[in-house]
Amino acid sequence: METKKNFDFDTVIDRRNTNSLKWDVGEKELPMWVADMDFQTAPAIREAVARRAAHGIYGYSVIPDAWYTAYTGWWENRHGLRMEKDWLIFCTGVVPAISSIVRKLTTPAEKVLLQTPVYNIFFNCVENNGRQVIENRLPFDGKEYRMDLADLEEKLADPQTTLMLLCNPQNPVGKIWDRDTLAKIGELCKKHHVTVVSDEIHCDLTDPGCAYVPFASVSDTCREISITCMAPTKAFNIAGLQTAAVAVPDPVLRHKVWRGLNTDEVAEPNAFAIDAAVAAFTEGGPWLDELRAYIYENKKLVTEYVRKHIPQLLVVPSQATYLLWLQCRRDDLRKRQVAGAVGELPLNPAKDLRERTGLFLSEGGVYGGGSQNFLRMNIACPRKVLEEGLERLKAGME
């Protein structure tokens, strides 16, 4: 018996000519790249924003107790992490927070560790601030990614490595890190005096029946050495409202982060940021659960379609996010390279697909870790759109 659905994820909404970054593409192109969804956000959020808009005055805003209660209640009830109100600092976004933290907690030319492949903007946050990226590559065995803890310790032991950016759950590979692995990260980072910044923005987008583990919940060590970046923006598709938070349990570390965010002027909310976040975390649960089920069905559709119709690709199994990581099998790439002109640059599968079919996916190489033969596909869209994307993907790979 099919479960009754209370929310609509099937209606196709035209996003062209709305100043959408994602949809600022050619008329015949289909964008399935940047991480925002093609669904309207939860009705409770739309209603909260409409009420705020109806007031007609959009002056400076303060952070009310309701905002703190919304965050602490959601994380305790959904993820088993009990946070204190004092841990939380408002910020306009996770990326501005990470960039600010890099500037405040490290000095020029120091090293910041990334586990690659990883969200490409991490590289910008490090390099644009005059710091060095040091990569701890995540080995892939053809079925799943894991951590190379021996290499991780070697990189952390470098005295120039002072900060680690952890992606939990992992973007782009969709991996949920288990408690034991996170505990080992905490132990190694404490041993080598490295602070962990855990980006947990995708934590609410786990597959049904899967739960993520907040880094700060794993042990006293993990809590004391960590800064957690969190937001409702990915799960509820409200990135444009610029609303996020940083949780820092250690008071000395918290003061440094607070000073950095305020110095960089990214610690004050716009007129809609608070109302949207409170509505998401107090009323958005039922909508989110239906969304997760819908995305899970989309994942199954892509996996089965690719298995049957696009043998040149491998869908990396995913437990979280609405982003799928697709491997272009090496044999196929080699055949196509041999067929190309002598001296031709290495193939760029994403560019090739876009030029030939109009399907716009993210290029794997920008995520580091030697991922030039991968693609990232955003499947957070109505099924009809996804089916068109798969047809274009099939045509492009043929």
Care to describe what's here?
This protein has 398 residues and is of the alpha/beta class. The chain has 2 domains: 30-42 and 285-397, Aspartate Aminotransferase, domain 1, CATH 3.90.1150; 45-283, Type I PLP-dependent aspartate aminotransferase-like (Major domain) (Aspartate Aminotransferase, domain 2). The protein is 40% helix and 13% strand. It has 14 helices and 13 strands. It has helices spanning 43-55, 65-79, 94-105, 121-127, 149-156, 179-191, 220-224, 233-236, 251-263, 273-283, 285-309, 330-339, 349-357, 383-397, and strands at 30-31, 88-91, 111-114, 132-135, 161-167, 195-199, 226-230, 244-247, 313-315, 323-328, 359-360, 362-363, 374-378. The strands form 3 sheets. A 7-stranded mixed beta sheet has the order 2-8-7-6-5-3-4, sandwiched between helices. It has a 4-stranded antiparallel beta sheet with strand order 9-10-13-12. Strand 6 (195-199), helix 7 (220-224) and strand 7 (226-230) form a beta-alpha-beta unit. The chain is globular, with a radius of gyration of 21 Å. It starts with 29 loop residues before the first strand and ends with a helix.
In short, what is this structure?
The protein is α/β, with parallel strands linked by helices.
So what's the CATH class of the largest domain?
Alpha Beta
Query: What is the helix content?
Result: 40-55%
The unreliable regions are: 338-346
Rg value? 21 Å
CATH fold annotation of the largest domain: Aspartate Aminotransferase, domain 2
Largest sheet, spatial ordering of strands: 2-8-7-6-5-3-4
**How many β strands by DSSP?**
13
